[in-house]
Amino acid sequence: MTQTGGNTVAPRDLGTGLWVGSTDARVVRAAAGGGFDWACVDEQHGGAAGGRENTDLIAAVRAAGVPAFVRVAWNRPELIGRALDSGADGVVVPMVDSVEQARAAAAATRFAPRGTRSFGPIRSVDGVATPVPEQANADVLCLVMVETVRGLDAVDDIAAVDGVDGVFIGPFDLSLALGLDVAGLLADDGEDGPLRRVVRACRARGLVAGAYAGSPERVARLRAAGFTMIAAVDDLAMIARSAGEAAAAAKAR
Ligand code: 3PY
Ligand code: MG
């Protein structure tokens, strides 16, 4: 991602995405094809365990015609490398709360000489294209999650780390860390409120400002606050909600 030495540049807008908790590739293909701009397979709190399973889920997202990200279970190079080897377009890395941790995440997403990702071009049997290192380094997105007090305090420095392409907030963890509920966190519109601080840090460098929403109201609030990559809905919650609505409608007749 182009850096501009501290000038405010247009933030990269990735639109609205689907959060994937399901491990069924057919469900994921159907849900991701519903008009979202991207989908993110959640290895941390969703069902996906990584490895072969993720390859299938990522392929299902790709078959729906949108980019696939993986939220890895933790900031560990082997998890990041495996998600990218499985074909992910980028990773969302949870609980990054220092410059050192952001550097480690960014390094794990890039091959040498920029980073430390290991090159193992043997996945074509799984249908994953062999990466061309320089191109893969340019194309991959490393999105680090700020969802702790330490992370929020360091957000300007985290956003300045070379190879960090965006900051993504987790409102559940962040609100817990700040002693608020999610509604309280999202309602804080102050100049130095958490949302503004994150968006400002991203805008200063043209980075993606991402957030998990999970409901249309939260999407609207986060969009208004300036976020440019918003996880709108969780696939399994969406199915459960639709099932509830269908059952209620059927019973009402
Ligand atoms: C959070 O809100 O803490 C998240 O990580 C979203 O899944
Ligand atoms: Mg979280």
Automatic annotation (TrEMBL):
Pfam families the record matches: HpcH_HpaI
Keywords for the protein's UniProt record, in alphabetical order: Lyase, Metal-binding
Gene Ontology molecular functions: lyase activity
EC number: 4.1.2.52
Domain HpcH/HpaI aldolase/citrate lyase: 16-232
Name of the featured protein: 4-hydroxy-2-oxoheptanedioate aldolase
Organism: Saccharothrix longispora
Assigned protein family: Belongs to the HpcH/HpaI aldolase family.
